[in-house]
Design brief:
This protein has about 280 residues and is mainly beta. The chain has helices at about 5-25, 55-60; strands at about 30-35, 35-40, 50-55, 70-80, 85-95, 100-105, 110, 125-130, 135-140, 145-150, 185-190, 195-205, 215-225, 230-240, 245-255, 270-275, 280. It has a single domain (about 5-160, about 175-280), classed as Clam (outer membrane lipoprotein receptor (LolB), chain A). The protein contains 2 helices and 17 strands.
């Protein structure tokens, strides 16, 4: 089987890279405030999302997390109408140190059983809440982007975009769709990859006609969280429209990861970006 058969997976991978770079170039919006701190949404491409909520600068610097290094394996299984099953697999390497810095290295997913060389390129994203930066780079470009997040006092709300109404055009009335309330189940606890995890299953039914479907669709989202590691160690998404996606944390190593993971590799050119400012090459 030729390497061209994995093109859709690689194309999606590059789309993720482009989307992440664009997001990092934008201002970070304040999404809420409470007390002396701010809630800030920060995008970390391809994987680990960083969300600092209700914490001031001293609090964020003093907060410690459980350090680890692991692989996050993703398996997608899609069953076609004629009974054919398509399976794709991908593994991301990730790490977190006790100061909250995170590292994630992504590679494109490939079809299971296809005898082609493994993708030789990867995309890395580092989030550093202490120095208030995110860093991203691709192994095949020798170029890294370092985005500096604003200080808490410098962050400003992003005003909503004004609606554009053409003269003489009557806006269509808003259509309200009544969706059934999802059913949430407590699955108790079980051991996954050597860690005790707490499980929750959310079941949502999409009534016939709401998504172009002629029959009701049942979508299931199952999550197993490790209270000790404070990470999702197993997640299963079962959606008849796209198949079953299983993500599991494996090969977990406890303890501080290699500090070099959070640094730009030698020989890379670094572009620095600031909120509201275009590329500024060092």
């Amino acid at each position: 089987m030729r390497i061209g058969q994995i093109a859709p997976g690689i194309a999606g991978f590059f789309l993720m890279i482009v989307s992440t770079q664009a997001a990092l170039a934008q201002d970070i919006a304040v999404v809420g405030k409470s007390g002396g701190g701010s809630a800030v949404a920060a995008l970390v491409g391809g994987g680990i999302g960083a969300f600092a909520s209700n914490c001031s600068e001293p609090e964020s610097q003093n907060r410690t997390t459980e350090p680890y290094t692991a692989n996050r394996k993703t398996t997608r299984v899609q069953k076609l109408a004629n009974g054919t099953t398509i399976t794709q697999e991908g593994i991301a390497r990730e790490a977190r140190d006790s100061s909250g810095r995170t590292y994630r290295e992504n590679r494109p997913e490939v079809p299971l059983g296809v005898e082609v060389p493994a993708p030789s390129f990867s995309y890395v994203n580092v989030f550093d809440p202490v120095n208030r930066i995110t860093i991203s780079w691709s192994s095949n470009s020798k170029e890294a982007t370092e985005f500096h997040m604003p200080e808490p006092g410098q962050m400003r709300p992003v005003p909503p975009a004004a609606a554009v109404v053409q003269p003489g055009l009557v806006p269509a009335p808003a259509v309200r769709i009544d969706r059934p309330k999802p059913q949430v189940e407590d699955l108790g606890t079980k051991t996954i990859s050597g860690l005790e995890a707490v499980g929750t299953r959310t079941t949502r039914v999409i009534p016939a006609g709401q998504a172009g479907n002629d029959q009701p669709l049942t979508v299931i989202h199952e999550t197993w969280m490790s209270p000790e590691l404070r990470e999702v160690v197993l997640q299963i998404d079962d959606d008849p429209r796209s198949g079953v996606r299983t993500t599991e944390l494996t090969d977990i190593e406890r303890g501080e990861p290699d500090p070099a993971l959070f640094q730009v590799p030698e020989g890379y050119t670094v572009k620095e970006q600031y909120p509201g400012q275009q590329n500024n090459k060092n």
